[in-house]
UniProtKB/TrEMBL annotation:
Lipid biosynthesis recorded as keyword: no
Keywords: Metal-binding
CDD domains: VOC_ShValD_like
Protein name, as recorded: Glyoxalase
Species: Roseivirga ehrenbergii (strain DSM 102268 / JCM 13514 / KCTC 12282 / NCIMB 14502 / KMM 6017)
Presence of keyword Metal-binding: yes
Domain VOC: 10-157
Any GO MF annotation of the entry: methylmalonyl-CoA epimerase activity
Any one of the GO BP annotations: L-methylmalonyl-CoA metabolic process
């Protein structure tokens, strides 16, 4: 039997740049229910600290400070929020055809209620709620935006159930 050296890595976190870190923490904690692991704090460009040096390595030298906050989903996935004082404060034009991150997805069995909360907190619904397999599976999805124009998707069921051939089949 051949030894398999590859295995599926788990997802740790995603980093999202927002125009106002305090409003973003409020939105994602109140609307999505994500836990605030670290309140917004300031990171300074300084070679004397581990975080300062690491950020210089990542962002280069053309910055002085930024704000960061850490949240977590119910299944332990981290959401790292960044706010840079000199960055562009509008979301980039939605263009899923170009290379790059296009969206992230959250799961909630009550998709209608979550969309209502998103709208009540300044977000947008990009499309009607759709069913993936209308006659076969009770799976719904919808693309939305947070108040900052960041696009994400909502599923009512897990990714594995949504795409597996045996789920809810006779």
């Amino acid at each position: 039997m051949k030894k398999k050296d590859n295995y599926p890595r788990s997802f740790s976190h995603i980093g999202i740049t927002v125009p106002d870190i305090h409003k973003a923490v409020e939105f994602y904690s109140e609307v999505m229910g994500w836990y605030v692991i670290m309140e917004p704090s300031i990171v300074k460009k300084e070679k004397e600290t581990a975080i300062g040096q690491m950020c210089i390595d990542v962002f280069g030298e053309d910055w002085e400070t930024f704000e960061i906050a850490h949240l977590a989903t119910s299944d332990g996935i981290g959401v790292e929020l960044f706010s840079f004082p000199h960055g562009i404060k509008e979301a980039p034009e939605f263009n899923p055809f170009n290379t790059g991150l296009f969206h992230f997805c959250v799961q909630d069995p009550n998709i209608e209620e979550l969309i209502d909360k998103i709208l009540a907190h300044g977000g947008k619904q990009r499309m009607p709620i759709r069913e993936y397999y209308p006659k076969d599976k009770p799976f719904k999805m919808c693309y939305v935006e947070d108040p900052f124009g960041i696009v994400f998707e909502i599923y009512t069921h897990s990714y594995e159930l949504t795409y597996s051939s045996g789920a809810y089949s006779e």
